[in-house]
Amino acid sequence: MAKLVDALGLGPSGATLESSSLSVRTLEASFGYFFPSMIHFLHTFSPQALLWSGEFFHIYWYGLFMVIGISAGLLTAHLLARAYHLKKDLILDLSFWLIIGSLIGARIYEVFLEFPYYSQNPGAIIKIWQGGLAIHGAILAGLIITAIFARQKKISFWLLTALIVPGLALGQAIGRWGNYFNQELFGLPTNLPWGIPIDIINRPLQYIGQRFFHPTFLYESLGDFLIFLVLLLIHVIIINKRQGGLLSLSRRQAVRLTTAYLFLYSLLRFNLEFIKIDPTPTFFNWRWPQIISLIIAAIALVLFIFSHAPNKSATTGQEGQP
Known about the structure:
Radius of gyration: 22 Å
Distance between the termini: 45 Å
Number of domains: 1
Number of helices: 10
């Protein structure tokens, strides 16, 4: 590590190099302590869904992480809109409809997937604080709402989606921790040291004798966060290359940012479904989320490859002015 520091030019003098090497060793020691501690925590901690209980209402971990995730995602989109010199209320005007519509879409999609259960328990449909928000439903509803909003405001649909998808990935990364506290959407039994304990009441009947399961929430959270970093880096590169006062995001760039998210997340979700054991419809031994992920990934890949429209600005229109 010291050689890497020296190669990066961080140690021009003996004293500075020594200080930098010390910082690197401290960082290595911190990470070396953090990861075993994190694995130990996951392997031994038994989470509970309820965060706080009052006389008139309760606060659930799932709801808390949903609020934090949505807020972080919208803040990211708002900051990107500012960086591109767009009107400050652009994302704020869209966010209200996105939140409401995406939650409804996510719940409708989940009810469709678990229709036998909800048909017998219709009162559970409104209990979103207990979990059961399907991200594919939220994405599809969000795309429809964004398309309607873009048409009404006479602004590029691809611009809006390009601003939204980094925050969407970040929001997903945060929101997945709600599944952890609900003890849901975990994977197959595992003997790996980071396997998470699941209470017997939450285990599928065929795995009732198993205690530790794959933390698929964590796998997806880490994957979503990586997607967020990739998309954010691309935006930063585009922003740093701007010339003059007004920064434009080309249609090609906007399309590719949006489709990159759709493809990368679909690829992540497709692979994670192989170890998930939550009930879901299957077709020819393929889980329904895998089929939807393949369809979305194929469409995204085609749009990404053939996004060769004229390289005009995607920030045109009344809302696109500073």
